Amino acid sequence: MKSKLLLIVMCSVVLCACDKDFTGTITNKEKIELTNENYLYEGDLYREYLTVEIQNNNNIIEALEKLSLARQLDEKEKAELNKAKNNILTLKDDFENIIDIVGLRIPKPKPPCPNPTNCDYFNFQNLFISGNAEMINIEAYDTSGKLVPIEIGEFSPFPDLDIPVQISSFKIESYKQTGLLIKVQVINADGTERNYYVEGR
């Protein structure tokens, strides 16, 4: 059964062939071949964003706590410290709630992945998203700030898997410069929304 996912996507990358680790059919019209190099999981992008944000907030906490040893913090600094501590709690909670899709039918990405910012985006041919997603927006910009396009097929539930994820084909055009700024917007069925960005290689 096909999902009613609405997708607006723009990005930049190219296909790359690899040895097959899984071959199956998503729909009657679409065939999938998964390897440990050819798929991108939106959850991994979000996980990378959360990791960076947790470190940023930890840096704020460390700096303010060090300052507090030299003098008493003013009210603004105290509020900033409390905010950073609360941010970390929320970020870590979001991190723990990301579904782990790697299993018998989904091969584990080979190093330096699964951190997608360390991966070669030219390899990605498939995109996984949460089964709860109603809409996903992805925009990617090269180092000159130019928006580069991507083609995404229709999302369908991943076959014979007991976790709520959807998959689509993923084809991205070549980009000459190194480095990508990837902006992501996800809207879930319950109305919750997250917006974030990550920097790729």
Helix content: 25-40%
The appropriate CATH architecture of the largest domain is Sandwich
H-E string: EEEEHHEEEEEEE
Task: Indicate the CATH topology of the largest domain.
Answer: Immunoglobulin-like
* Overall pLDDT confidence: 78
State the shape: elongated
Number of helices: 2
The CATH C-level name of the largest domain is Mainly Beta
Q: How many strand units?
A: 11
Explain briefly what this protein structure is:
This protein is α+β, with helices and mostly antiparallel strands and 201 residues long. It is built from 2 helices and 11 strands; from the N terminus they run ββββααβββββββ. It has 2 domains: 6-41 and 113-200, Immunoglobulin-like; 49-96.
Structure description:
The chain has 201 residues and is of the alpha+beta class. The protein has 2 domains: 6-41 and 113-200, Immunoglobulin-like, CATH 2.60.40; 49-96. The protein has helices spanning 42-70, 75-96; strands spanning 6-9, 22-25, 31-34, 39-41, 126-130, 133-141, 150-152, 156-157, 165-172, 180-188, 193-200. The strands form 3 sheets. Strands 4, 5, 7, 8 and 9 form a 5-stranded mixed β-sheet that branches. A 4-stranded mixed β-sheet has the order 1-6-10-11, with helices on one face. The chain is elongated, with a radius of gyration of 19 Å. The two termini are 36 Å apart. The model is unreliable at 1-29 (pLDDT under 50).
